[in-house]
Amino acid sequence: MTKFIYAAAGAFVAIFASAGASSAEDLVFTLTNKTKGTLERFYTSPVGVGDWEEDVFGEDVLGPGESIKVTIGDGRDVCKYDMRFEFTEDSGFEDLEDSQNLCAMGSYTIHQ
Fold first, then answer.
1. In sequence order, which residues have a C-beta less than 8 Å from that of residue 47 and are 6 or more positions away?
2. In the predicted model, what is the mean pLDDT of residues 65-70?
3. What is residue 72's three-state secondary structure?
């Protein structure tokens, strides 16, 4: 899991911010999986961008009850991001999508 955290922190990743990320600062947040399914892929992109950015997780996954710290260091001056959460096939969950102002949040929890 440590490898994942460093990869996620080093890569341009997903969303959420500590207060005050208004001038192209990295967005940092904690992502928590409070479902009974395994989160296999996690995509983000600024609202209005037509395509998803790279999968934040790469080859890693986020199991039920697990949390990770995510950093988006994409250099953009935006706070509103679209997110897509994809679960493993055997989880039995539908994929989820959401949009949030991540500059106003320090964490995001997936419930289902």
1. 78, 80, 81, 82, 99
2. 94
3. strand
What separation in angstroms does the CA of 32 have from each of 56, 68, 69, 78?
A: 14, 7, 9, 23
- Report pLDDT digits (tens) over 75-108: 888 889 999 999 999 999 999 999 999 888 889 9
Give the Cα separation of 41 and 17 in Å (integer). 20
Q: What is the largest CA-CA distance in the chain?
A: 41
For residues 34, 46, 14, 66, the Cα torsion angle rounded to the nearest 10 degrees is 0
Q: Report how far residue 2's alpha carbon sits from residue 21's, in angstroms, rounded to the nearest whole number.
A: 25
Residues 18-46 have pLDDT tens digits of 333 344 578 889 999 999 999 999 999 99
